Amino acid sequence: MTAPGWRGGWRPGLAYGALGLPLAFVALPLYVILPNHYASEFGIPLATLGALLLGARLLDAFADPWIGRGVDVLLGRSPAAVMAAAAAAAVLLALGFRGLFFPAVQGDNALLVWCAALLALTYLSYSLLSVLHQAWGARLGGDEAQRARIVSWREGLALAGVLVASVLPALAGLSAATGVFALALVAGLLLLWRAPRPLLGGGAGGASSAGAAAPPMVAPLATRAFRRLLAVYLVNGVASAVPATLVLFFIRDRLQAPTWEPLFLASYFAAGALSLPLWLRLVARLGLARTWLAGMLLAIVTFAWAATLGAGDVAAFTLVCLASGVALGADLTLPGALLAGVIQRAGHGQRLEGAYFGWWNFATKLNLALAAGIALPLLGLFGYAPGSRDADALHALTLAYCLLPCLLKLGAAALLWTLWLPEETSP
After folding, report:
1. Angle at 294 between CA 288 and CA 296, to 5 degrees
2. Residue 13's CB: how many other CB atoms inside 10 A?
3. Which of 139, 122, 136 is closest to 185 using CA atoms?
4. Distance between CA atoms of residues 97 and 22, nearest Å
5. Which residue segments constitute the domains of the chain, with CATH numbers given?
6. What are 101-136's pLDDT values in tens digits?
7. pTM of structure
8. How far is it, in rounded angstroms, from Cα 417 to Cα 424?
9. Which of 15, 39, 50, 418 is 20 to 30 Å from the Cα of 119, by its Cα?
10. First to last CA, the chain
11. Which residues does 218 contact at the CB level (< 8 Å), separation at least 6?
């Protein structure tokens, strides 16, 4: 079975996936640049800023299931109505993004109110576009290889967006970066209008799963296959988010190589993007779940090797970044394609994709919070602080950056093996 309206080739993939670039572009400055910008440019205390950012992120995470339900209602309307809502969200996102970095008010209290309001606006409009884009792709359907190809276009262009966002603000300034983001957003929406379109409206009939009788917003959680996949995704996501949280500490203190940070990060994201065709070939041979398992095992071997590195091991850590970037390609492409299959088999296709991806995005944001909540307190408990050169503190950093992700990845692989693969291979 091929995806409805999907003609094959690179043009439909680019048309669908292009919106992933600006959506990934906006995420990096919001999470990395914005806190430093408000602290250094406006003198906002870090503790106050941290509390504000945490509140905005929690609002965003808990809003995702509701946004998902709204997306399903929206996808039940005409293509013109869907695109009009997407365009309105894009306008709010572009205005909110620029307004955050160029506030129209002065004074600490006014800046905090401004920042809180625009963070809520930016995060919510970003989430609406993200869930809509993901649900659109899931509604295209197809077999395992086709679903993986659809997701790989979205995530591959998202990685390109991360790469651009990592260098453009430093090279051209924040004003130019917000302008480029707005143009990329317009281009992404125009291309989406020309992309293969899913069947809009009521779509699939009744499901035989337990989720069929549940209210639409909680139907995903009533679907056993989704709960099992979500469990694997959560554990694996925390395993991936822990090193992402700690990588700069590891580079600066364990490797003592801060000047090489751009090389390490660029190697990681570039390897992730370039590895996508490899994973698609493996899906055709092994299937989605076994290919994802192979990606987990690659990550485990890579981070076990990283635990042996020390000061000055720049070349070796570049290889670690390349190998872990390849493993990232599997994490970005394969779980979303598995989720699209879950939705189809549950009988919720063309009806509840938004609800599923709302909960999925909630889990994604929960992963980031759990990673910081696990890794950072553990490091503090064992005596590590940024800039430390104490041997015991650096040993604790190595355990948290390298071995904790290995243990979590092993747990995710065990869950995938025991909860998912037996059902996938049963009649």
Report:
1. 105
2. 20
3. 122
4. 12
5. 13-200 (1.20.1250.20), 209-427 (1.20.1250.20)
6. 999 998 888 999 999 999 999 999 999 999 999 999
7. 0.79
8. 10
9. 15
10. 19
11. none
